[in-house]
Specification:
Blueprint lengths: L5 H11 L7 H20 L4 H13 L7 E2 L6 E2 L1 H13 L5 E2 L6 H4 L1 H10 L3 H20 L14 H14 L3 H13 L6 H4 L2 H4 L4 H15 L15 H5 L21 E2 L6 H16 L11 E8 L1 H12 L7 H5 L2 H11 L9 H15 L2 E5 L1 H9 L4 H6 L3 H15 L8 H6 L3 H13 L21 E7 L5 E5 L10 H16 L4 H8 L5 H9 L1
Length: about 525
């Protein structure tokens, strides 16, 4: 008997998992993910590029049944068009959810919402669809995390998520679901950096692969099939998207829930800027200030952070962009920290073109005083939370390690030379780095099982420490191990933040909205009306 393929296992899980088998703690986190996804779209109702995407969806939807709601505007479109329009709006400011690993809400939540609004489905169906879709999307990216892409640039997960979510929402069987997934990954999407830093293309990061996934579900429902070994087969998905694939991470469905690690952003922008911004605002508060009114108040700002945030800064600078727009700020630690200090916060409306234009010169002047540095100890502590990473790295052969090393060098550039061996050995965090490096090495012989990762409230240590040297006051400093809303922080505080997010986005008391999400029998149509009307 042939071994079960990854897509066969995924399809059975998506199609056959009863809602009753999803733990309540997971559903509680998915409820917040639903609100995060919808508020991300609503906050961008003014965005000019998103309005153009909506116009394109309207043009493509002429003659179709307008059954589903565009959350940002209240427009009604056919389900597929509404899902893609919502994904475009939600992507504009990167004010989404994330988990271990991937930014899944665009495909886990938004297509299910559109299709279930059309079919008069329930909130219970919405939550169960989002939960199972999270799991297969997250496993695909986790199995490829030692690869050339990271974060939102794993846009291929939306191919899979669109197919999985549409099949579950439509109640299609495992065979159809498996074929939909196979078709969706036949031509997988991925992002190229120049487009990722351009507003017109960036907002399509999830919408384009999502639509491919929805089409794949439609084709499979009509009878088309695809190769079920397309992920792990010869010259299949893993060959191109992982330096060292970890197929073990595609298992343990139903016993390990990646949705346990869901995190909800406090600030618009990539998850890698949230801890630095939290820390910068903490240093501002410690100085007794509400905002920096003039860049001259600051001599310098030191941001010590993890490898991923440090790499983001290098990749952002390598784009060579001069303008200060939403994309530039969303994907730059230095620009986000500068803008947050100048405003005393970082809110969606701060990214309107006129707002950014008014602050552009001051943002650039203050950002020039920001130094982003890689802190070895913070990175080591982050990776040590994943208990069998040593065993994962031990899988790699010399050629695979060389590819990974060369990729990291390309991301981080030549460096500034400030971290010499002597400075590294003398750094305050170096003993912690050694301790965690030894823990990593000791894990090399552990079995690789997702069920062994402590996923429930997994600590998303995207950490940062910020010191602000003031021109006429003592320096202040703040360290943030986990950003506001991140997995590993207090569940009650995260729920309170998402409720406040909902109030700000929709301008109404969030309590009735939260109550509708608590009742699995609530019609999705009623839930949407409570939000939009």
């Amino acid at each position: 008997m042939s071994p079960e393929t990854i897509l066969s296992r995924f399809a059975r899980f998506v199609a056959e998992t009863p809602a009753a088998d999803i733990p309540e703690r997971v559903l509680a986190k998915v409820r917040l993910q639903v609100l995060t996804s919808l508020t991300a779209a609503r906050f961008s109702h003014w965005h000019p590029m998103a309005k153009m995407a909506l116009a394109a969806e309207k043009a493509g939807a002429r003659g179709g049944r307008k059954t589903s709601t565009v959350i940002a505007t209240g427009d009604r479109l056919p389900a597929e068009n509404a899902a893609c329009a919502n994904a475009a709006y939600a992507m504009t400011l990167d004010f989404d959810d994330y988990m271990l690993m991937g930014h899944t809400g665009y495909s886990a939540v938004l297509p299910a919402l559109a299709y279930l609004e059309r079919s008069n489905g329930t909130v219970g169906e919405l939550l169960s669809t989002a939960a199972v879709t999270n799991e297969v999307m997250g496993r695909l990216s986790l199995a490829c995390f030692l690869g050339p892409l990271n974060g939102q640039m794993w846009s291929y997960i939306h191919n899979l998520g669109g197919a999985a979510g549409a099949c579950r929402a439509k109640g299609l069987d495992p065979d159809v679901t498996k074929n939909a997934m196979a078709l969706s990954l036949y031509q997988p999407n991925f992002c190229l950096a120049p487009g990722f830093w351009h507003e017109g293309s960036k907002l399509l990061t999830s919408a384009v692969p999502l639509r491919a996934g929805l089409w794949a579900a439609r084709y499979a429902e009509a009878g088309l099939s695809g190769p079920e070994n397309i992920v792990e087969g010869p010259l299949g998905f893993f060959h191109f998207f992982a330096f060292t694939p970890v197929p073990e991470f595609t298992g343990d469905l139903g016993s390990a829930w990646l949705s346990d690690s869901l995190s909800y952003k406090r600030y618009p922008g990539t998850s890698y800027i949230n801890a630095p911004v939290d820390a910068a605002l903490g240093a501002l508060l410690a100085a007794g200030k509400k905002q920096v009114k003039d860049p001259g108040e600051v001599k310098r700002i030191a941001v010590d952070t993890t490898l991923l945030s440090y790499s983001l800064e290098n990749v952002s600078k390598a784009q060579g962009r001069k303008e200060v727009d939403a994309i530039a700020v969303n994907f730059s630690v230095s620009l986000s920290v500068a803008y947050a200090l100048l405003r005393g916060d970082l809110a969606p409306d701060h990214f309107r073109e006129d707002e950014l234009s008014a602050f552009a010169d001051r943002i650039q002047a203050l950002a020039a005083r920001v130094k982003v540095r890689h802190d070895l100890a913070l990175s080591a502590k982050t990776v040590s939370t994943f208990p069998m990473l040593g065993a994962v790295l031990a899988k790699a052969n010399h050629r695979q390690f060389s590819r990974l090393r060369d990729h990291l060098r390309a991301l981080n550039g030549p460096g500034d030379g400030s971290r010499s061996l002597a400075k590294t050995l003398a750094a305050p965090g170096f003993p912690g780095f050694v301790k965690n490096a030894l823990k990593l090495a000791a894990s090399r012989n552990r079995p690789i099982r997702l069920a062994d990762v402590p996923l429930e409230n997994y600590p998303m240590l995207q950490s940062a420490r910020v010191r602000v040297d003031w021109a006429s006051a003592p320096s202040t400093e703040c360290e943030i191990p986990i950003p506001t809303g991140g997995s590993g922080t207090d569940d009650g505080a995260r729920k309170a933040w998402v409720a406040e997010r909902t109030r700000r986005a929709f301008g109404k008391d969030p309590s009735p909205i939260l109550a509708l999400l608590e009742d699995p029998e609530t019609p999705v149509r009623d839930f949407v009306k409570a939000l939009v009307l």
